[in-house]
Amino acid sequence: MTRSILKIALCLWAVILGTVLSAQAPAPTLWEQRAKERLKRLTSVQQLAISQAQPSEAGLKKKKLKKLHRILVFWRCETFIHTSIPAANFALQEMARKTRAFSVDLEDDYKVFTKKNLKQYDAVLFNNSTTLKFPEDSQRKALIDFVKGGKGVIGIHAATDSFYDWEQGAALLGGQFNGHPWTANGTWAFKLDDPGHSINRAFEGNGFWHQDEIYQYKPSNFQGMENLRILVSLDMSKEAVRAPLSLEKFEKFNSAYKAGNREVPVSWIREYGKGRLFYTNFGHREETYKNQAIMQHIFDGIMYALGREKADDDSTGSLPPIAPALAPALELPETK
Question: Are the C-beta atoms of residues 85 and 92 closer than 8 Å to each other?
C-alpha cells in the first residue's frame, strides 16, 4: 500500500513539475516558428566546403591589436527568409576562427540594439535580414550613433530589403531593394568598377561570371556614385545580363529607370560620419559561401568596415573615370 501511495505521489509531482516548467518557458514567437520551419541545419559536408572557402590567417596583415574586434551578426527576417542564412552565419564564424581577425555574436532579437549593448561591438552585420522594423526609436538612434561615432556596418544580400519605414536606415546601407530581374537560377556577368581597389584584390583584376540573385535599387533612395565607392557591378555589356530587362514580369520595376545605359551596382563602400559601410549583394545562394574569391572579397570589406584595413573610399563620382574590368565571354558547353 505504501509503495502504491509513493508511486502516485511521484506521478503527481512529475505532473506539477512539468506544468511549472512549461509555464516558465516562453511560447515561441512567430519569427522563431518561421525560422525553424524554413532554415535547415548544415550537413558536415556543407560545413567542410564552406570552411575551406574562408580566408586564412596568412592573408591578414600582422598588426598588434589592443583588443579582439567583435561583430554583431543580426539575421532576423520579418518577411522572406533566405535559406542561405545558416551558410552565411557559419561562414562568418569560420572566417573569424581561421583568420583570428574578429569574433562574431549571432543575434536575432531587436533588444540588442541599445547604446549600452552596442558599445561592446566594432561593427554590426546584417545577414540577409528582411523588412526589419525597430520597435523603438531609441534603437534607430543607437545604430546611427554607433556608426557615425566611428564603428562599422556591413550588409549581405537582403540587408537592403529592409527599413521601409525608416529613410535614414535605408540610406545607411546605400540603397533599397527594387526587384531582382537577375534571378538565383541564372549565371550573370560581373565587372570590376575599380580593378585595382584593395577590396577587389580577390578577383585579381578580372571580371567574372557567378550564379546568384542580384538586386536593383530604388532610384528614389539609392545613394549613387556621388556618395558610394562602387566596387563591383553587373556587366551590362553582356546580352545574357541585359535580357531580363525586357521581360514583361519585371516591367513594374524597370519602368522606374531612365532609358539608356543602365548601371546595377553589386558591392560598394562609403564613409558614414566617422564610421564605415561595406555592402555586397552577393549571398542569396548557399553556394556563394563556398566561393573563395567572393569570401575573400567579403572578408576584405569587413576589414575596412572594422577600420582594420585602410581602403580608398572616395566616392566614385568624385574620381576621374576608371577603366572597368569586364567579364570574359561566357563559354557555353559544347552540344553534341
Answer: no
Residue 179: closest CA among 79, 264, 75, 286: 264
* Closest C-alpha among 121, 99, 106, 311 to residue 201: 311
Give the residue with greater pLDDT, 50 vs 331. 50
User: Which pLDDT value is given to residue 61?
Assistant: 58
Q: What pLDDT does residue 118 have?
A: 98
Give the model confidence (pLDDT) of 56-65 as tens digits: 975 555 555 5
- The CATH number of the domain holding residue 71 is 3.40.50.880
β-sheet with 229-234: strand ranges across: 102-107, 69-74, 123-127, 152-156, 275-280, 265-272, 229-234, 187-192, 208-211
Question: pLDDT tens digits for 273-296?
Answer: 999 999 999 999 999 999 999 999
CA distance 13 to 30: 32
Half-sphere exposure of 193 (CA within 13 A, CB side): 23
For 116-127, how does the pLDDT look when each residue is reduced to its tens digit (9 = 90+)?
999 999 999 999
Of the pLDDT bands very low, low, confident and very high (cuts 50, 70, 90), residue 330 is: confident
Identify whether 132 is part of a domain: yes
Domain extent at residue 223: 29-175+217-233+261-318
Number of domains in the chain: 1
Burial per residue of 134-173, b for 16 or more beta-carbon CB atoms within 10 angstroms, e otherwise: beeeebbebbbebbeeebbbbbbbbbbbbbeebeebbbbb
